Amino acid sequence: MTVQHAGAVAPSQSLAVRAFDSSRLEAFCATAEFDRPTLVLDVDRVEAQYHALKAGLGHADIHYAVKANPHPAILGRLVRLGAHFDAASRGEIEMCLAQGAQPHQISYGNTIKRVVDIAWAHQAGITLFAADAEEELEKIAEHAPGAQVYIRVIVEVSMADWPLTRKFGCDRDTALRLLDTAKALGLDPVGFSFHVGSQTRKAEMWRPTLDAVGQLWADAKAAGHELTMLNIGGGFPAFYGEEIQAPTDYAAGVMAMVTERFGHVPRVMAEPGRGLVAEAGMIVAEVVLTSKKSDRDLHRWVYLSIGRFSGLAETEGEAIRYQFVTPHDGEATGPCIVAGPSCDSADVLYEKRPMQLPLALKAGDRVLIRNTGAYTSTYSSVCFNGFPPLEAVAI
Ligand SMILES: Cc1ncc(COP(=O)(O)O)c(C=O)c1O
Q1: CB 345: neighbour CB atoms within 10 A?
Q2: What is annotated as the active site (predicted)?
Q3: Ligand 1 atom having least distance to the Cα of 198
Q4: Residue 384, φ and ψ in degrees, nearest 5
Q5: Based on the structure, what is the number of domains in the chain?
Q6: 151 and 261 fall within a common domain
């Protein structure tokens, strides 16, 4: 198998880290035998990326967004590195605790929580909760009395490849009112959170969001609120083929803009998910079928052993374009529609913008899918069409 390294990678320090670690992963994946699609994780690569991000983030704490990949080897390594965690559910909190994280290192960042889970988290020692609605604050006040809360605000302008607008956050006026509500309910409103949208490729793209939240921060202080915490969320990018800014430059760029607008904030939280783990993972899959629908068909169809429901959910809207490594790289290519193996017509990965893949590709060929450490194993369905969930192994 010809194993090629990423071509147009971002400059500076990330290049060295990426080249070293992707070669180790690719070498392993090129020969390892698996009887089903498998995500292979290089946890050393996660550690390298943690240090690279931390070098730019300065005094900000990294709260790893566990939803990106809760593999015990990743959580365990991050605990040893002193990371903090952003958990979306009781299940994620339990996974962090099981790896040795302390409750004070875990924030419960989902703005939509069941009361039984709030009560459970409170008794487990979790003290920091997110909210974006009055009713959520009432639930927290009743089941985690006196807890610290931060208010998540809407991001109006997202330049992300995978935006997280609409569903989360509240507008400026609501955010200010919720600070008052939290206080009245006996909670401790410490600050705000936002998310610029996942896969925001350059630090500069954060500017409109930081401007808006900076103004809100100033308004809240003018209204008498003593804010001590700013949660800047995730958005840190991974390499999928389009140029991204290197992690330390990126994080330092974001923090410089934060300082310009907010001054010194005692507690800054950053919640990278994708940016921390995506490049540490590679999926080993195979071609199940290649075909043409007619003699006139300009495209080949390439059906893989993995699809939208078995780990590649982020191909929705063709938002994330993964890079494939095949045994025929370097040979003649043609436009291919890439699809998954299930009996569901939505299980088509790339059709609007077909992929250029080797024409020699055929059933049984191994396909490696680069930089798939984030939002793959966690998105895979349990047994849709009888296909097992994506297996994940750490090397
Ligand atoms: C609250 C919160 N924080 C952090 C993240 C991680 O985002 P990313 O993977 O873009 O770093 C997410 C992702 O959905 C999120 O919902």
Answers
A1: 7
A2: 343
A3: 10
A4: -60, 125
A5: 2
A6: yes
